[in-house]
Every structure is written in structure tokens, then in C-alpha cells.
Here is the input.
Amino acid sequence: GTAGHGVSLDFSLKDLYAIQEIQAEENLFKLIVNSLCPAIYGHELVKAGLVLALFGGCPKYMDDKNRIPVRGDPHILVVGDPGLGKSQMLQAVCNIAPRG
Here is the structure.
């Protein structure tokens, strides 16, 4: 069970096969980058940075006594001309991995 963890994830056999297919992808990083905001053409470096921010960061703990790990806040500065989709890309990242 998941006693003490507070989160339960149930996967169907179909989900498992889909995960295995994605995991077997030759260029998995490129697949993930291209999956972020597919409606916004290009900007692969910006998208790559945002994807890496989801998986990285400084370790952060909920309280000092039990040292429960939580995802830290990524600090990202995206600069560019108006209308390039910066806000949409940042919002997509927030929707992919919401906190709490």
C-alpha cells in the first residue's frame, strides 16, 4: 500500500505498455522537449531548459525533523520578444507538474 505517502497511483495494463513504449524511444529527451507546448513551433532550447527545470533543482525538505523531500522552486528567467509564447510555455510547465 501507500500508507504514509498520501498518494496512490493506479496504472492499467494499457498505461504500462504506453510507458514502456515511451521508455524505449531512441531519443527520449527530444520526445519530451517536443511534447511541451506542441502548438508553439520551435524554441527547442527554451523548452529543453524548462523540461530540465522540472527534473532538477536544489533539494528541499518539508520539515527538518522528518526530512520529507519535496520539489524545490525552480528559478527560471525567459526573455524574448512579445508574442513568442513565453507565458504559455511557463504555464504548460506548471500544468505538467503542479505542486500540492
